[in-house]
Request: fold
Amino acid sequence: MSGRIGYLGLGSNVGDRREQLQAAVDLLAGHGVRVLASSSTYDTDPVGEVLDQPSFLNACLRIETALDPIGLLDACKAVERERGRVLAGEPGYVHHGPRPIDVDVLLLGDLTFAHERLSLPHEQVLARRFVLIPLLELDFDLTVPDGRRLADALAELPLDEGVRRAGPPLAVATH
Ligand SMILES: Nc1ncnc2c1ncn2[C@@H]1O[C@H](COP(=O)(O)OP(=O)(O)OP(=O)(O)O)[C@@H](O)[C@H]1O
Ligand SMILES: Nc1nc2c(c(=O)[nH]1)N=C(CO)CN2
Reply:
């Protein structure tokens, strides 16, 4: 497959969290997304609008895909749905609430994209330690399309959002 290089963020705080993240990696290939590498997994304090919930397991993936941005978002949503996730707009959905699996599109090549369903880069990519730390593990020189360095963004964030290495990278198929 030839296409763009991108980065996805995975998160889970319900059930066997590592198993949820691994299942998402394994399902992506069936949706036109080749997973090239995984970061380690990290146990992270909840951030956002719901703080009273179990800690998350987070990881980031480097991917290659020929999908366009909305196609990639649809692939991520399909994986979430296959893993039983209640999606935004459905009964029982809680914004920022507990979820068995969350698959976010963080970066896709050097694309910037503003659509009601998709922002690229992800709006929070420079603001969340649980995203920046695994991304920098994959590539310390990563930048967003306007040239800002992720490493500089991390250095400027307060240290109050706990991010603890939890385990080795998720298994990625080799071809
Ligand atoms: N870069 C992006 N990656 C994934 N979803 C996005 C992105 N930009 C916008 N969205 C939209 O955000 C909607 C809500 O996503 P989701 O249910 O994962 O929200 P959340 O996890 O509660 O909050 P957050 O988006 O801050 O992680 C999605 O249905 C999608 O249309
Ligand atoms: N630590 C952490 N906190 C979160 C996460 C997440 O993946 N990790 N996802 C959220 C919903 O997008 C809200 N808060």
